[in-house]
Amino acid sequence: MIYAGHEEPWRQWRAALAGERMHHAWLLSGRRGIGKAAFAMEAARELVGGPATGNHADIVVLSHLPKDDKEEAKRDEGKPFETKRNISIAQIRAMQQKLTTRPTLGDRRAVIIDPADDLESSASNALLKSLEEPPQGTFFLLVAHRIGRLLPTIRSRCRVLRFPQLEDKQIDAILRREAPQSDAQPRAAAIAASGGSPGTALDFLGLGLGELHTLMEELVRVGDPDFTRRGALAEAIGARPDRQRQLAAIDLARSVVTNAMRDVERPAIPALAEAHDELCRLAAQAPTYNFDPGLLVMEIGSLLATLGDPRGHPHG
């Protein structure tokens, strides 16, 4: 199955596969939720041959491990589980130990790291050694959501496959197919926050952020002189939102501000750009900081409300 937007990456991959010399390291770059991991697995199967489904002895996958023993038990039971935030050097070293032996079923082996931009710094340095001197018949596929976080020396040793963002109408078609019971308002919120990623849009749809989207757009458009909308925003996000919902709220606010930039006159753009920068800062900190959820949603609401208040615009 070829996902929407994957036509060109597949063309490049299969042309290389049919060539005389296949590059040993590939960097799959694009937004989270665009289907890069699925591409990596299918490409790896084409590379090594063998069964088209199930585990493959010559495909090594490194990703986030369960956070602790309790979460590992959940994983083993097939339940949702929390993961560690990074891929560790121990995982890289275990992979490198496997590479000292020959492939099991053929003469090729594939190593998938998903996502490579979550490697610990020591793990990145250890991986670099394998990329500099790859074992015969070993090929690396590195999935990267934020390619700029990778070491330049890692990027320089990889051939980059770029996965494009999808248009709104393409994402809407996917949402209608995958979530046929969804209403127009939640779909619109999911598309607005997706950044061109259908996987992100589906995640947002599952979180039920349609009301948040409407309130955020109102804050940007008309402000909040009596704090009513900010209060409603806090209620909509919930008293104790988990980290996923907090991150989703920040991303949704960023998309609302980005969309507003397309529809305003030039004097308002500096204020919008400043708010967007602040939201980007929050987005960068949120995965590792322990924000108070109430203070976080009020900060988001206040940034948006300032944009809707002419007194908040330096050039209004």
TrEMBL record:
List the GO terms this entry assigns under cellular component, sorted alphabetically.
Answer: DNA polymerase III complex
- InterPro entries from the xrefs? DNA_Rep/Repair_Clamp_Loader, P-loop_NTPase
Q: Name one GO biological process term.
A: DNA-templated DNA replication
State the Pfam families in the record: DNA_pol3_delta2
- The molecule here is called DNA polymerase III subunit delta
